[in-house]
Amino acid sequence: MLFRFILSRLGSAAILSVGIILVSFILTALLPGDAATSRLGERAAADPEIVAAVRARYGLDQPLYMQFFIYLGNLLRGDLGTSIRTQNPVLSDLAQFGPASAELAIAATLIAIVVGVGFGIVASLRANGIIDQVLRVVSLGGVSIPIFWLALIAVYLFSTVNRIFPSSGRLNPGETPPPQVTGMYTFDSLVAGNWPLFISALSHLILPALVLSAPMIGLLLRFTRSSMLEVLGNEYVRAAEAKGLPRHTVVLRHVLRGALVPVITVLGTAFASLLAGTVLVEQIFGWPGIGAYAFRSASNLDLPAIVGVTLFVALVYITVNLIVDFLYGVIDPRIRRA
Amino acid sequence: MTTPTTDPTLAPDGIPIKRNRWFPARKRLPAAWRRPLAVVGIVIILTWTVVALLAPWVAPHDPLAQDFDRYQPPSGDHPFGTDVVGRDILSRVIYGARVSLPLAVLLVTLSVLVGATVGAIAGYVGGVVDAALMRVVDLFFAFPAIILAMAVAASLGPSLTNAVLAIVVVSWPAYARVTRSLVLSLRETNYLAASRLLGDSSGKALIKEVMPNVAGPVLVLASLELGNAVLLLSGLSFLGLGAVPPSPEWGSMVSAGAAVFYNYWVALFPGLAIFTVVLGFNFLGDAMRDALDPRSARSVATSEL
């Protein structure tokens, strides 16, 4: 049963991935701009021989459906084209900037889970009370605030006026990154046992991660609250209370377990809002991640790079949702039959 | 059930089906008015709408005129200060409402038109067409909105029109999902069968019978999405992929202040404008969701985020 469930989810994820590749292909092939020259730098594009060679290599002289299969083949070999701006293969750019984004996204997610779920539980236990109303405004504020503006305010308050946190980058100037394990400096410096470096990496990470977590906190708070309220209304909760169990036992043992299962499912979708935020937050904090890379690519009309990022991020998103699906299926056996 | 005496205006239990053309659940709307946050939201939205409409009379100065000393801090003459070329920021923020609000309405309208059409066809025709269309919808859901919008805006070139198009590309699927599920639940109802018995064609039944019943919940979802539309649009403009200078667009004004954030007022006030507008829409939307509780609209609205 579980095996079949996993297989079917894997299958639909694979189909979705092919669809995404198709869309990214259409973006490169059909939108204005010569796909051949856009893969090359300016100097190379001026040389007709090189252009012809690239056209042949990417099959741009072939009919469109053949072009798609060639594109697919190139992707399978890890060839996402060459960035116009950096002149590097897009894949190696992604590999370089990926860990920084992963570190930021993971930190923001952890903050959002602790704060969002925590306050969501508090709000549900005090439903319609004054604390609940305040938290409602907080959560609506979290999803309403323009994150680029919040980031600027955070930099102004905590880096410019009060020098509590550094305003940009991942480490202080002059510090060398820890030996590469994951590429996430906080983790790697811990592995290397380098405490001063860990503190430095952490102090650079906190502010952008807090800003990035704001919309996700809003989302998780609301969702946890409604999920908790739904479970609190169940018969078995009343039964547990009728047995005379203390309130905290009922909440922690009976309610929380049932209420948090649906929360896992929003994590996948909340992750998407997080990805959108990274573009803006990384730009403002000078965080050398994929979001900043995507922005610089887009503002330089670097089509191969931006399509590469789109493809990559969509695949990450599918993978995250696949994992969420699995988790959900494992925790709640009823889902597997659906 | 197949006897000709079945009254299509009665539900199986004999209670008349109330078919209000545009707001099937209108009788429950007043609940929204009893919520303080909803009232705050309405006041915010109305204020901004009035400001946008009366901009030429409300704004103290010309939003484009470079008449003053650059980077003046907020003062009596310039409550929001002046910007890099000496324009009055208050006037620009006021005129900004004329950019963001109509464009948000426009792009949500376009998304609704595209999404509802696709969703209605999928739900009404069913079968292979439905399956194929819904896979396309899934596909667009998998793309992170702002990054796909960036790709579209980057390849079409930066302009407000292209930013609107880019956001429509990423936001129509939500309406397709809701409309489809609503049409599916309607498809088997009695009055649709009655319409068919009267000899209406599918197309006519879709427009005459299905559309009015779907419109309410879809409009609720659309109103919930107005805030998101403002956020996405100003985000793209902040990145330089939307409004082109010297247009007084809030996102690009914040962007202009980002480089000089020690002159905090340049970015602070336009950002505050975005925040209040989006907050207004979300206060209102939150209350409407609670009051109307169209389950389909809610589940899609949360999954779409």
* Percentage of β-strand residues of chain B: under 5%
- Number of distinct helices of chain B: 12
Helix content of chain A: over 70%
Task: Outline the low-pLDDT stretches of chain B.
Answer: 1-9, 20-29, 294-305
Put simply, the count of helices of chain A is 15
Q: Summarize model confidence as the mean pLDDT of chain B.
A: 79
Topology pattern of chain A, helix = H, strand = E: HHHHHHHHHHHHHHH
CA gyration radius of chain A, whole angstroms: 24 Å
Question: What is the largest interface, and how many residues per chain?
Answer: A-B, 54 and 52 residues
Q: Mind describing the biggest β-sheet of chain A? A: none
End-to-end C-alpha gap of chain B? 42 Å
Number of strand segments of chain B: 0
Residues in β-strands, percent of chain A: under 5%
Sum up the overall morphology of chain B in one term.
elongated
Q: Please state the overall shape of chain A, judged from the principal axes of the Cα atoms.
A: globular
Could you describe the 3D structure shown?
The complex is a heterodimer of chains A (338) and B (305). With 338 residues, chain A is an all-alpha fold. Helices cover 78% and strands 0% of the residues of chain A. Chain A has 15 helices and no strands. Chain A is globular. The termini of chain A are close together. With 305 residues, chain B is mainly alpha-helical. Helix content of chain B is 69%, strand content 0%. Chain B has twelve helices and no strands. Chain B is elongated. Mean pLDDT of chain B is 79; it is low at 1-9, 20-29 and 294-305. At the A-B interface, helix 1, helix 7, helix 8, helix 12 and helix 13 of A face helix 5, helix 6, helix 9, helix 10 and helix 11 of B.
Please sum up the structure shown.
The complex is a heterodimer of chains A (338) and B (305). Chain A is mostly helical and 338 residues long. In chain A, 78% of the residues lie in helices and 0% in strands.
Features:
heterodimer, A: 338 residues, mainly alpha, 15 helices, B: 305 residues
